[in-house]
TrEMBL record:
Keywords: DNA-binding, Phosphoprotein, Transcription, Transcription regulation. Residues 5-122 form the Response regulatory domain. It holds the Pfam family Response_reg. PROSITE patterns: HTH_LUXR_2 (PS50043), RESPONSE_REGULATORY (PS50110). Residues 140-205 form the HTH luxR-type domain. It comes from Pseudarthrobacter quantipunctorum. This is Response regulator transcription factor. InterPro entries: CheY-like_superfamily, NreC/VraR/RcsB-like_REC, Sig_transdc_resp-reg_C-effctor, Sig_transdc_resp-reg_receiver, Tscrpt_reg_LuxR_C, WalR-like.
Length: 208
């Protein structure tokens, strides 16, 4: 049986070296290549076609992990990608999953948890670190909290009675982008009108 090939993507050499050594203890896991940026990750995926990409989110200048995940998945919808990071905010988790990540591990995960996640990704399984899984579960129970920071900001501005054009000027985005954000907000909040979204925003503020 052929080993599972892995691409490591992290801008820290020490992290990549440690993870390579860890995965190397497993006969069925083989690190086939490494990358230190999102741009390099896209090139390495193209060159090596790894079974699994293990991706950090923050990688200094250039393309970050979220954008790299999105672009890799656009090229190959079947590519398995696991996030391996120190970032555990709600926004980061949601953005990574939305971009196409199949799993989300924190860097303090136990070795067996990492091995299991890589093997599971090849089988199409989604694996999350317990703290991440807990946050996602809470977000599913409280859908209002899955708004991205920009969507939350726009929702708050709705209460000021601003038009789409005024919202765009305030946030330095186009009216078309405002409409896209509003559509996402309505869907996530389960509302169909601007008034209902404003009512939800006011209720959210009152609960803080």
């Amino acid at each position: 049986m052929s080993p599972i090939t892995v691409l490591l993507v992290d801008d820290h050499l020490v992290v990549r070296s440690g993870l390579r050594a860890l995965l190397g203890t497993q006969k069925d896991l083989h690190v086939i290549a490494e990358a230190a940026s999102g741009e390099e990750a896209m090139d390495r995926v193209q060159e090596h076609s790894p079974d699994v990409v293990v991706m950090d989110l923050a990688m200094g200048a250039g393309m970050d992990g979220i954008e790299a995940i999105r672009r890799i998945r656009e090229r190959n919808r079947g590519q398995a990608i696991l996030v391996f990071t120190t970032y555990d905010s709600d926004a980061d988790i949601v953005r990574a999953v939305d971009a196409g990540a199949m799993g989300y591990l924190l860097k303090d995960a136990a070795p067996e948890e990492i091995f299991s996640a890589v093997r599971g990704a090849v089988q199409g399984k989604s694996v999350m670190s317990p703290p991440v899984a807990s946050r996602l579960f809470q977000q599913l129970r409280n859908p209002e909290e899955i708004l991205t920071p920009r969507e939350a900001e726009l929702l708050s501005l709705l209460t000021e009675g601003l038009s789409n054009r005024e919202l765009g000027r305030r946030l330095f985005i186009s009216e078309a982008t405002v409409k896209t954000h509003l559509a996402h907000i309505y869907a996530k909040l389960g509302v169909e009108t601007r008034a209902a979204a404003i009512a939800t925003a006011i209720r959210r503020e009152g609960m803080r």
